[in-house]
Structures are given as structure tokens and as C-alpha cells.
Amino acid sequence: MFKFGWVIWIAVLFLPWRLPAECSYYLWQRDYNAAVLAAAQTALADENVTEVFGLAAELCVLPSGKWQWVKAAVPEEISAHHKFVPVYRVTAQALPDAGRLAQELQEITANVPHFQLDVDAPESKLAAYGAVLQSLKASGKKFSVTLLPVHLKHDAFMQCIENCAEYYVLQLHGLNVPQSIDDEYFLMNPATVKSSMEQALKRQIPFKAALPSYAYVLEFDEQGKFVRLYAEGADLSVVPHGHTLRLAAAEPKQLVAFSTDYPTVERIWFRLPTAESRWSYSGETMAEIERKIVPEIQLEWRTERKGRRLTLFLTLKHQISLTEKTVNIVWRTTPATGEFFPSAKVKCAAETPIGRLPEQLSIAFGADGQEVAVANFITDAEIIMVK
């Protein structure tokens, strides 16, 4: 049907955006390319962004048992900004050696006025974690910590948090990985959010809430059995033919509801969107959510003509999408005739005779707010609507 196709390309537009309400962001990249740097600079310059919490270093325990700090390449212009808060992520494997861990944290944060400690501590190691926090407090360090909802029920540990930390960050995003494609799963479980917020507010210890503005991709095999989880940056081209992909994300409606239900709780969004983000809500979408407006999914289109070559561009806004979507093209005259050269992830949604231009296309869109070059048409016909 087609003589040839050409590889899809995406024109990335990272336009300046400002948030209408105070909130913060996590910046979790280890390397700062141009897109990450631009996103960080934009967020730090936004008067409504309170803080940017950036990964500074991560402590790993190697198979040999050796401890290794892996530092993120944070540019000095970012790390020196008064709104930037470095985050030190520590594996729970290091918690049993509380004295050594506290000492190394003191050394690595020697020139840091305030930092955040991120440890996904199992309940069995909360006593050891508490010992680390007490040592840091005794050394005069000022810090915050991240907590999981399951930690809130432990009175002794929460008392330690109140005595040692300036505040804690309640992580309300976490995926219950399904065993099969028919199992229910949430990235932000409504029941967990409700019970956790009730506990946190009852304790009256200063805290902030970490909420997901990102998504995971889940892979299932031909029998519907869960295979693996993909995070931002993963290459989906390795997924075998016949396997099914599903998206795990919090819907904007749920995120707006949280802001409405808990207006006095400061939000930290994980994570800061960049121009290269595929599975995160865009800055424009996040601005709508912060206005407590559930953004409606929008399809924007435009064309460019050079002689008889007509190029169609589409942008899907306010949605993270994996599945193909069908769009309808309205030509000024029908049937429209000419030649059709689709991009790699575009196909006709219905059989179209040779020489006739399609009126329906099935498209695998890019990230939220990213413009996609859909197809080239060699024709004198004009598009008057895409919906």
C-alpha cells in the first residue's frame, strides 16, 4: 500500500510554565543533560516552587559487602541554590551498622546545611534506623526523612522522628505489583492514602506528602502473567512480540482530589518533568492540577506545507498514553487523493484504496504534551480538522 515510511520524530517543546500554588519537586536524575538542567533551572526560578529535592548520592552495598557511595553529577549552580535540598538515599542493608552509617552521613554532608535522608526501611529495622537518626541529631545535623505509610503505626519510631527530624515526607506512591493482568493495582492506592493521612494528621508531627506525577509500565506475557516493571528511561523495544504493556499511573482527578481534601499539606511531586520525560505529566498538566482543575485531554494539530508535501503534526495533552489512539482527519474535499507516507508508529485505521488519502489513523503518541510528526502527504488537498 505504501511505497516507504520514515522513522517517527518528536519535536520537544519545554515551554516555561509557572505553578499557581506552592509545592515542591523531586529531581531524581543522576546525570544533568541539557533537558534536566533546563527543568531544574525553570523550577528553581519559579516563585511558587518552594524547594527542589535532588538526589545527591546513594549508598549501595556491593555483593562483596563493601559500601559504595554513588554521587549524582549535580551542577554547582543547582546545588548552591538556596531552594535545592540534597537527598541521600541509603539502602536498608546498611542500617544494622548504625554507628558507621551515621558517621559516613556526617562526613558526606559536612558542608550541607540541610539534607534529606531517604531509606525504605523495613519494619524489622526501624530500631536501627532510629539509632542512626539519633546520632545525626546529636551531631547537630538538620535533616528531614522520607517515610512509608507502614511506618506510621510504630509509636516509638514516630517519637524518634518527632525528636530528631525537622519534618518527614510521607510517600503516598507505591505500586502493588500484580501477579496477572487481571489483578487490580494502584500507583497511589486510595485506601492507603486515606488511612495514612488520617494517621499522619492525628500524630501532629510536621510532614509533607510525596505524590506521583510519573508512571510505571508493566509487562505481561501471552498468558497474562506479570513479567517485569519498567521505569522512566527504559527501552520498550526489548519487549517480546505478543507481550502486553499496561500503564500504572495516578489519574489527574485523583491528584486534584488530594489537593482539595488536604489543602494545608505541602505537596512534593515525584518527579520533576523534563523535555525528555515520556511517562510523566508535563509541567502544563501539573500547573492545571495545582490549580485544582482536572485537565481535559486535548488533541492539538497543525500542518506544514512545502510545495505538494503536507506534513501533519499532532500533540496529545494531559495524558500519559501507551495504547494506540484513533484520530479522524477531515479533508476540505473528499475523497482526498495523493500519496501517504506515515511515520513508524502510525497506521491506517481502516482499509484505504491506493491513491486515496486516509480519513482515520491509529497513532502511538509520545509523552504528555510532546508534538509528533505523524505523516507526510504528497497532495494538493488540505486538512481542515483533526479530532
Helix-residue proportion:
10-25%
**Termini, distance in Å?**
24 Å
The CATH C-level class name of the largest domain = Alpha Beta
Assign the CATH topology of the largest domain: TIM Barrel
How many domains is the backbone divided into?
A: 2
| Average pLDDT for all residues | 92
Q: Helices and strands: which structural class?
A: alpha/beta
Q: Which homologous superfamily in CATH is the superfamily of the largest domain?
A: Glycosidases
Approximately how much beta-strand content do the residues carry? 25-35%
Shape designation: elongated
Give the neighbour order of strands across the main sheet: 2-3-5-6-7-8-9-13
Task: Write down the Rg.
Answer: 24 Å
Number of helices: 8
Largest sheet: 8 strands, parallel, barrel
Could you characterize what this model shows?
21% of the residues lie in helices and 31% in strands. With 387 residues, the chain is an alpha/beta fold. Helix 3 crosses helix 4 and helix 4 (126-138) packs parallel to helix 5. It has eight helices and 21 strands. 33% of the residues are buried. The model is unreliable at 1-16 (pLDDT under 50). The chain folds into two domains: 11-290, Glycosidases (TIM Barrel, Alpha-Beta Barrel); 298-386, Immunoglobulin-like, CATH 2.60.40. The protein is elongated, with a radius of gyration of 24 Å. The strands form four sheets. An eight-stranded parallel beta barrel has the order 2-3-5-6-7-8-9-13. Strands 1, 14, 15, 17 and 20 form a five-stranded antiparallel beta sheet that branches. It has a four-stranded antiparallel beta sheet with strand order 18-19-16-21, with no helix packed on it.
